[in-house]
């Protein structure tokens, strides 16, 4: 993704020295994806009077209605700006925030992602933490308080809370409980407050969805359509790399918004029942997986093109011709990645303000879990795609490989290490084993070059049962064994007996075999599949990379054996704890503990030339 120069430091008080790092404005969770919180509305009333379609409760009427054919009604860019100034004009909320703070009001922001820092001048926090905003004069860095510390934090890592008055209302409710005569009034006020808070969240979901559709439309009609007209500048492959399947996403999101509008209650938004829409379309959201996996390649391709002035001028001309807001093309292409991350956050907030008695409560709860699983599936597919490249390079390094490619059935290395394989006649063979999902591969080390591996066979893990053996004499084979276990075939009389050097090694292998079965089940439940084209491409790239090199291809890191991948229901969508100036917010991989496996595996690689 092409980079901008760091933003200049604004003049700040001497006791508040702005961190050297700065964030490009477009890397924030764009202002068009945030609703103006309660409390900020009163600051911007003069600005909102120009909007002809603002309802009395602070919400906006639909600005992007969808007809029966799935297309939006035409409206001008100026109309959209006047109708939703708080979404489309970067910096508009910033001024309102400072005005509200100067009035003595408390403004809070919710952390979207972890911010890890070793700088004393920066405020560290975790996703979900609430931060009080004390100053927002700079668009990139805000001054805030978290617990007992005040410091700078990146504005791109937070979003303003939809319900700013929640704390004050809760405190007033608590004081009211001390007076018994006012208890009934306080309960009534609290009920009305709940309704208003749910209204705010519903309106945020609706408004951000409408604006998101507008941006998808701008990408498809403003960029892709113009690019296809200039065949001398772009090949079909380049356009596929840059834009991925965003046209499919646009088509899907129009249908989704159409159903969402049908469930939206304009007169009483808090009564809206939108949970069923997410449940109805949950399988359709899987198309985001392809886009998110393609996004790093799109950024790289776009970055190469932007080195040439004619491409920079071309994309800027497309933006101006379409009357799009002042965000570069890479910022627009990031919006689908951000959007799929935001759905679980929005639904979690909506569930918070939906009472169990509400008719939509069960659907909202199910929709929240469904969208978490969608995000989890996208995370997992992204991780698997990165994994299959490493696995393909590993296979190329094995001497004398026979049979189907490892990727035909497997996409993840779960564990590896040395075991002694014992035959019925008592003959032992020292082998190095690699446990993947669905299969266990056996290799033999070269006698002279211990870093070179020879293929010696594989076992179908789907066809065997794991049997733990106690130390002592095995009755079936009449052999004395220690730290041993068996893999017994379910369909034939074939049995494999393995012995580990230490008891802890055996425990790791038993646990790894259980993890392999669990992950296979979860893959089936999640619908986890790697396409044949992606597998073939990974093998082709590995063969090209290994061409002309000695067998035992070096530089092939493999995932650690003990990956703490939580069960499906425990996984959550996160964004990586990146430094603020990082140019792309990507979906995070599950965190893993440090492992010595990388060091051990490097010993198996050949000598470098």
From TrEMBL:
PROSITE patterns: DH_2, PH_DOMAIN, SH3. Residues 197-381 form the DH domain. Residues 51-63 have a biased composition (Polar residues). Residues 412-518 form the PH domain. Residues 38-70, 167-195 are annotated as: Disordered. Keywords: Cell membrane, Cell projection, Cytoplasm, Guanine-nucleotide releasing factor, Membrane, SH3 domain. Its main location: membrane. GO terms for cellular component: cytoplasm; ruffle membrane. InterPro entries: DBL_dom_sf, DH_dom, PH-like_dom_sf, PH_domain, SH3-like_dom_sf, SH3_domain, SOS1_NGEF_PH. CDD domains: PH_Collybistin_ASEF, RhoGEF, SH3_ASEF. Residues 104-163 form the SH3 domain. One of its GO terms (molecular function) is guanyl-nucleotide exchange factor activity. It is found in: Cell projection, Ruffle membrane; Cytoplasm. This is Spermatogenesis-associated protein 13 isoform X2. The lineage of its organism: Eukaryota, Metazoa, Chordata, Craniata, Vertebrata.
């Amino acid at each position: 993704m092409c980079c901008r120069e760091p933003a200049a430091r604004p003049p700040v008080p001497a006791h508040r020295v702005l961190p050297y790092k700065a964030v490009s404005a477009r890397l924030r969770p764009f202002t068009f994806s945030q609703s103006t919180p309660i409390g900020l509305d009163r600051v911007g009333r003069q600005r909102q009077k120009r909007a002809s379609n603002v309802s009395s409760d602070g919400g906006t009427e639909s600005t992007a209605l969808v007809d029966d054919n799935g297309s939006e009604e035409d409206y001008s860019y100026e109309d959209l700006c006047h109708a939703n100034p708080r979404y489309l004009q970067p910096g508009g909320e910033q001024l309102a925030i400072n005005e509200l703070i100067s009035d003595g009001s408390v403004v809070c922001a919710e952390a979207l992602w972890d911010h890890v820092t070793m700088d004393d001048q920066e405020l560290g926090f975790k996703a979900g933490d609430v931060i009080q905003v004390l100053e927002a004069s700079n668009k990139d860095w805000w001054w805030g308080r978290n617990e007992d510390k005040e410091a700078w934090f990146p504005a791109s890592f937070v979003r303003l809370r939809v319900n700013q008055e929640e704390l004050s209302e809760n405190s007033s409710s608590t004081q009211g409980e001390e007076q018994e005569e006012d208890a009934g009034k306080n309960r009534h006020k609290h009920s009305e407050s709940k309704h208003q808070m749910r209204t705010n969240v519903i309106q945020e979901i609706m408004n951000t969805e409408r604006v998101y559709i507008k941006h998808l439309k701008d990408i498809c009609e403003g960029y892709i359509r113009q690019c296809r007209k200039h065949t001398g500048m772009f090949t079909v492959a380049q356009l596929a790399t840059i834009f991925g399947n965003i046209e499919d996403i646009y088509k899907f999101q129009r249908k989704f918004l159409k159903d969402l509008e049908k469930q939206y209650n304009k007169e009483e938004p808090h009564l809206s029942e939108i949970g069923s829409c997410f449940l109805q379309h949950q399988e359709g959201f899987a198309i985001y997986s392809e886009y998110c996996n393609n996004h790093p390649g799109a950024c790289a391709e776009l970055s190469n093109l932007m080195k040439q002035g004619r491409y920079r001028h071309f994309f800027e001309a497309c933006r101006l011709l379409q009357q799009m807001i002042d965000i570069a093309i890479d910022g627009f292409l990031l919006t689908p990645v951000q959007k799929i991350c935001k759905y679980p956050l929005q639904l979690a907030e909506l569930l918070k303000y939906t009472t169990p008695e509400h008719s939509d409560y069960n659907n909202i709860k199910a929709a929240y879990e469904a969208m978490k699983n969608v995000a989890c599936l996208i995370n997992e597919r992204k991780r698997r795609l990165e994994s299959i490249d490493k696995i393909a390079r590993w296979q190329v390094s094995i001497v004398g490989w026979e049979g189907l490619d490892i990727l035909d059935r497997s996409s993840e290395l779960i564990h590896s290490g040395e075991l002694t394989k014992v035959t019925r006649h008592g003959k032992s063979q020292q082998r190095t084993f690699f446990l993947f999902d669905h299969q266990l591969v056996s290799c033999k080390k070269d006698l002279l070059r211990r870093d070179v591996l020879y293929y010696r066979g594989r076992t179908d893990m789907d066809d065997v049962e794991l049997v733990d053996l106690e130390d002592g004499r095995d009755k079936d084979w009449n052999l004395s064994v220690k730290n041993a276990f068996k893999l017994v075939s379910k369909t034939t009389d074939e049995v494999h007996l393995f012995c580990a050097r230490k008891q802890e090694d055996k425990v790791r292998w038993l646990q790894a075999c259980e993890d392999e079965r669990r992950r296979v089940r979860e893959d089936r439940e999640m619908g986890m599949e790697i396409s044949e084209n992606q597998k073939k491409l990974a093998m082709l790239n590995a063969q090209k990379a290994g061409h002309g090199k000695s067998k035992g291809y070096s530089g092939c890191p493999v995932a650690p054996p003990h990956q703490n991948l939580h069960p499906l229901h425990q996984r959550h969508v996160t964004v990586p704890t990146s430094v603020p100036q990082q140019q792309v917010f990507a979906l995070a991989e599950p965190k893993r503990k440090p492992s010595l496996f990388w060091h051990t595996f490097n010993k198996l690689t050949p000598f470098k030339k």
